[in-house]
Amino acid sequence: MKLALTTLALTAAIGLSTAQAQTLRIGLAEDPDALDPTTARTFVGRIVFASLCDKLFDINAKLEVVPQLATAFDWSADGKELTIKLRDGVVFHDGEKMDAAAVKYSLDRHLKMQGSFRRAEISVVQSVDVVDPLTVKLTLASPFSPLIAALTDRAGMIVSPKAAEAAGAQFANKPVCAGPFRFVERVAQDRIVLERFANYWDKGRIHVERVVFQPIPDSTVRLANLQAGGLELIERVPPTDVPQIKRNNRLVLSLSDELGYQGLTLNVANGDRAKGPIGDKRVREALELAIDRTVINQVVYNGDYVPTAQPIPPANPYHMAAVKPAARDVERAKALLREAGHPAPKIELMVPNSPDARQIGEIVQSMVKEAGIDLTLRATEFATSLNAAEKGDYDMYLLGWSGRVDPDGNIYSFWKTGGPLNYSKLSNAQVDKLIDDARLVNKVDDRRKLYEQAMGIIRAERSIIYLWHRKNIVAHTNKLSGYTAVPDGILRLQDVKLAN
Questions:
Q1: C-alpha radius of gyration, the chain, whole number
Q2: CA contacts within 13 A on the Cβ side of 199
Q3: What is the spatial distance between Cα 58 and Cα 149, in angstroms, rounded to a whole number?
Q4: How far, in Å, CA of 355 to CA of 489, rounded?
Q5: Domain 261-469 classified CATH 3.10.105.10?
Q6: Burial of 327 by CB count in 10 Å (0-12 exposed, 13-18 middle, 19+ buried)?
Q7: Angstrom distance (rounded) from CA 33 to CA 23
């Protein structure tokens, strides 16, 4: 309760400092990493960006691509040129024009900037040319079916060239985009404050003056703040809190199926840690066989999630129906460990420092112990855990992915040799070819077959053990109206209103 009261005191202070300005306070499950669309990689960062940085395109609740900074696009007959028409009259938060030159600058930045996590998403783009002030042409090395989908996310976010050049590597400290809210301040692990941008191109749909994002990793504390009036909206509510919210007539619940998954990333070849037992695929197979996804789902999430063995959720047309989780088999797990020469391996599981992640870790720890695996847990702040994974400072890592509309977004960066999210350092030429080929074709059935072949190899290598598909669960006060859930789980504040 002390934590909850501390947070309430903070939000009250922020509210007083803004006088009569209407402030929407949002509780986040983690603190985002860099607020630079080129280098960012966290889900909570995407939530903040939805208010800060508009994209060329967006998706709606029906998963349809809709225009945002762009108004139209056209493919050449050979699928190697994409012409994009831009919205007229858009300005960045610094007053500079958002035009074709700014789009070229931002896309080139995504492709060439050191440390870019967008490069792999649009790497097929060879050049970006300004046709006229409101038209750009992207020339591709080869046809690339996921490109428009990629431009509905951070790869499609356009930054102010003037501000980015002036700030250099420090751009994330004061990002300047063309979204509905402009950046005011950030206090790490405490708050991110944005305020309404008066010259936003779609300002008629923005009805709150200020947004305060507060990272509160403990879901119990987030809910306590919502119930007490210290927050107006919270994201990623655990299913165990749903009954309590339903009983409170001052709260509103929103549920939607997510596009992503929760899984265990295993260190296949990322540095010295991979030289231990975890580097043996038989040990990795034994780990999976010792785990019961259904039991974990029931205990931690009331059985509300969908156990899986793949990155594509059931509602997606690319879902691989034949790919199902294997049944738990402790005896087979023991036999594999003996065969590998590691009958009692010591392995560490890194988990984000949140209550449900720690609980999952404890259940997994208990399950694999029955097979002879001595599993220790390392609870780590989320952004820190990402850095550790990138450096190879882990054996096994509990990590979720919010998901993308196109399956390439759930697969490529994680499986491709050298992919920016390939923390396991899996490198398989056959997988690389299959997922590269899937980028060249448009037919659902043809692409699915390629992914199924690659999935067979991934299941054998176990660079990622897929666990379940979650639901996006959001709760807010009944004073808030106009919120529309989109399956990507991103909080869009267009049309959201707060009653006085």
A1: 23
A2: 13
A3: 8
A4: 20
A5: yes
A6: exposed
A7: 23
Whether domain 57-163 has CATH 3.90.76.10: the reply is yes
Residues whose CB is less than 8 angstroms from the CB of residue 384 and which lie 6 or more positions away in sequence, other chains included: none
CATH number of 2-52+179-258+472-498: 3.40.190.10
CA angle in degrees (0–180, nearest 5) for 367-469-423: 75
Q: What is the DSSP letter of 270?
A: S
Q: Which helix (H) or strand (E) holds 348?
A: strand 346-352
Dihedral of alpha carbons 273, 278, 279, 284, sign: negative
**CB neighbours (10 Å) of residue 340?**
17
Query: Is 234 in a helix, a strand, or coil?
Result: strand
Q: Are the CB atoms for 258 and 402 separated by under 8 Å?
A: yes
Give the three-state DSSP class for 433: helix
* Structure confidence by residue, pLDDT tens digits, 449-474: 999 999 999 999 999 999 999 999 99
Instruction: Return the axis-axis angle of helices 293-301 and 355-369, rounded to nearest 10°.
Output: 150
CA atoms of 100 and 132, how far apart (whole Å): 7
Using alpha carbons, list the distances in angstroms from residue 464 to 199, 426, 431.
45, 10, 14
Per-residue pLDDT tens over the stretch 375-406: 999 999 998 999 999 999 999 999 999 999 99
